[in-house]
Amino acid sequence: xxxxxxxxFEVRVRPxxxxxxxxxxxxxxxxxxxxxxxxxxxxxxxGHGCISGKLMVFLGMKGSTVGPYVIYSLSKKSLxxxxxxxxxxxxxxxxxxxxxxxxxxxxDEWSKLSNVLQNYCSGRGCIGKLLCREGLLIIE
Amino acid sequence: MYLTNVEExxxxxxxxxxxxxxxxxxxxxxxxxxxxxxxxxxxxxxxxISYLNIGDAGLEFIEDIVNAGGTAYVFTSAxxxxxxxxxxxxxxxxxxxxxxxxxxxxxxxxxVKFYTCVPYNVRPPRYGEHxxxxxxxxxxxxxxxxxxxxNKEGGPLALLAAITGRTYxxxxxxxxxxxxxVLFNVKVSDGVDLGFLGLVIGELTGSKVPYISNLRFKCTxxxxxxxxxxxxxxxxxMAVIQGxxxxxxxxxxxxxxxxxYDLGSESIKSYVKEFxxxxxxxxxxxxxxxxxxxxxxxxxVLRYAVGVVEKGGSSxxxxxxxxxVTTYEGFINDEVVKLVNKLLRYNVxxxxxxCAVVSRLDSIKVDYVVTDSVKASSYISRLSKxxxxxxxxxxxxxxxxxxxxxx
Lengths: 140, 407
Hints:
The complex is a heterodimer of chains A (140) and B (407).
Chain A: E1 9-12, E2 14-17, E3 20-32, E4 38-39, E5 44-45, E6 49-50, E7 55-61, H1 67-76, E8 83-86, H2 91-100, E9 104-106, H3 110-119, E10 127-131, E11 136-139
Parallel strand pairs in A: 3-7, 7-8, 8-9
Antiparallel strand pairs in A: 1-11, 2-9, 3-10, 4-5, 5-6, 10-11
Helix pairs in contact in A: 1-2
Chain B: H1 5-11, H2 17-32, E1 38-40, E2 43-46, H3 51-67, E3 75-78, E4 81-82, H4 94-110, H5 119-122, E5 131-133, H6 136-146, H7 157-164, E6 166-168, E7 182-187, H8 194-205, E8 210-213, H9 220-233, E9 240-241, H10 248-252, E10 259-264, H11 269-276, E11 284-293, H12 295-312, E12 321-327, H13 334-341, E13 348-352, E14 354-355, E15 368-371, H14 374-383, E16 388-390, H15 393-402
Parallel strand pairs in B: 2-3, 2-5, 4-14, 7-8, 7-10, 8-9, 11-12, 11-15, 12-13, 15-16
Antiparallel strand pairs in B: 1-6
Helix pairs in contact in B: 2-7, 3-4, 6-9, 8-9, 9-14, 12-13, 12-15
């Protein structure tokens, strides 16, 4: 019997805002508007729950240019995610992450990453480690 | 990214914490967009300063960065903010007004010189000047009409550029990206509202730079309206316009257009229908000045209005309505004051530093808006969720004072 075996997946990422981050992975397979989709007073993403301290994996940011301010405000209240991994970056998301010191990376192997998150992590929860210097996202 | 000696030192904090943080954002964004270096700018123009748009999160950020020592490194202006005055006695909540005033106070401390969406009418940039402007109509005007170079800076980026005097060198700062890709051959009859044409071209061109040929503008007012509309439906920072853009001949030299559109008067019909067929009831705001009026436009509008009321006399009834004329504060001189004094009893207000679009007009009990601006109509109907009607400028005034609706 294989006791204690924990699958471990590695995905290459390109760091945009450097730093390391760790946390429960929250996977949102869509573009997020930080103004409309998020309760910034409580750090809750509508339909997905709390994002505070978690590693957010999502397609990218859309919509309002107020988005960077919302990320900044979350961070000041200690409600921000620990890190963000996206398929596409845009200037507003980078702005929000730099101002708030949140590590941000692009996952070029998006289909591999979303497969793991949908098939393996769904229902059981996964912990992610974003290691920007190594250009690596580790999912356990 | 290559950084100059000064930029390295700024990034390392020798110019203070706020400038270091601001430059870090600009460098990161620039790197992600493939920029190889920064560019020094001569003028930053900040948008997104209405409390009703940016809320507590925006207020908090602007105050924090200014309190951390963020001051303008170059000439800086900003967009107008929510209109603070009342509409027929209905005002915004005091708490909201106070928070707006806190934003303005912080921006004044940062060094903002004036608040208008037409910085090109106040401090027109010279040909070839690099800017970091964030207001879409102004960016289009600067690039397309004056030959200055600016991207449409999103969110807080223009504010950060103001603090550092720099932005990333990509997009419209590079000559290759100013070459048009889509050709529009325009043949419209006289009297067609070019504001509608701007919407159509904006939608068709998307984020590509259009080349617009055969379009004649009778005055800069038409040009402003056209570009403001174009910026409503498109992301492009510039349009190359035959006979208008200073270096249009060089920019189109050798270009073989794959996308070509022939646009006639009929191309705008569906828009005219959409913007001119609303049923209006209740209390109405008549709005002229989106984008803000230049000094000449302002005097022309006020003189026309005075002419109408002097002829109309006691038969004029503007009950349940107000006319707002929005412009830059510095254009209010003795002549303007004299003209405005003749119009005060007709609920006419010259509004400075303010913008109706970012004012949540429903909160001050405006039931409908009549305006000459397609841009204002488009945004107000979405943001304030009230019906709007677009008429030519003269007809906005005639309808307001004489109740003559010809549409």
